[in-house]
């Protein structure tokens, strides 16, 4: 058995109908995991379930808001009641819509960004850790960003939210290592998803220019390249890795 094999393991994935979320669900289910997938948007759920129908694992979809504590408790409870435990989780749900510097960022926009990206990650982790503590083992992967280290222009709240995701990751990694729970972050660079495409459109940017500026490899990353990293961090292959921020960014942060 490969140590990336998740046969019999149970996973939660948030942001599951988004660009990266879909690829992460497919990778985990393809490795044999039983996945409880959740997203605010359910319009892509049928496609997602069809795409993973032949995988060796299984997927159920539950729609709801990551910023709602009851919803995230229900998602985790569903994973445990269906499959007996929660072994891993990938928290990918987030929003990004900014085009202005800090003094022009409205309080409402700041609060909305924090509510989904920070409170949502916090509530997801809170429910996931509670379930993992019972088993004394688990792996949580938060999707942060290269913005967790290096801001892009005109993204004050998003940048702050992604710094906070790293803070939640490192804090929990420290507190729960002794309980057998590993907590890591993936910091994607420019990945070809609806979030990136809509950011470029809002800013009137050309895809080739953005790829050339944000990636040493001269191209956007693919969602599957983030999913491969998430699978590794969920699996026993990464058993000595915790509190880590793994850049999957085409070399962006190396310059
Ligand atoms: N695409 C990139 O270049 C890039 C770069 C760095 C980090 N990221 C991060 O990667 C993760 C995945 O983003 P993506 O690029 O796949 O974007 P995406 O917009 O395709 O997916 C995000 C998903 O989150 C869901 N979501 C939003 N608000 C929610 C809420 N309140 N409750 C539940 N679900 C909610 C959306 O419906 C969407 O399906 C995010 O955390 C994002 O910040 C993306």
TrEMBL record:
InterPro entries: NAD(P)-bd_dom_sf, Sc_DH/Rdtase_CS, SDR_fam. Belongs to the short-chain dehydrogenases/reductases (SDR) family. It comes from Ilumatobacter coccineus (strain NBRC 103263 / KCTC 29153 / YM16-304). GO terms for molecular function: oxidoreductase activity. Keywords: Oxidoreductase. The keyword Thylakoid does not apply. This is Putative oxidoreductase.
């Amino acid at each position: 058995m490969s140590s990336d094999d998740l046969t019999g393991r149970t996973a939660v994935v948030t942001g599951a109908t988004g660009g990266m979320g879909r690829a992460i669900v497919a990778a985990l289910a393809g490795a044999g995991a039983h996945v409880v997938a959740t997203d605010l948007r359910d319009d892509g759920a049928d496609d997602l379930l069809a795409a993973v129908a032949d995988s060796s694992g299984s997927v159920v979809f539950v729609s709801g808001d990551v910023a709602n504590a009851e919803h995230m408790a229900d998602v985790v409870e569903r994973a445990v009641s269906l499959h007996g435990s929660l072994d891993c989780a990938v928290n990918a749900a987030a929003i990004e819509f900014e085009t202005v510097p800090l003094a022009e960022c409205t309080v409402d926009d700041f609060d909305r960004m924090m509510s989904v990206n920070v409170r949502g990650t916090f509530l997801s982790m809170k429910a996931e850790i509670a379930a993992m503590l019972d088993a004394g083992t688990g792996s949580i992967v938060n999707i942060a960003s290269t913005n967790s280290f290096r801001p892009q222009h005109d993204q004050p709240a998003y940048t702050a939210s992604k710094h906070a995701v790293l803070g939640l990751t490192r804090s929990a990694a420290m507190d729960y290592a002794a309980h057998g729970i590993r907590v890591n972050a993936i910091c994607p660079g420019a990945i070809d998803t609806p979030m990136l495409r809509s950011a470029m459109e809002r800013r009137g940017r050309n895809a080739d220019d953005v790829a050339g500026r944000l990636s040493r490899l001269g191209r956007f990353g693919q969602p599957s390249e983030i999913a491969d990293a998430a699978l590794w961090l969920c699996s026993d292959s990464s058993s000595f890795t915790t509190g880590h921020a793994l850049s999957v960014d085409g070399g962006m942060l190396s310059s």
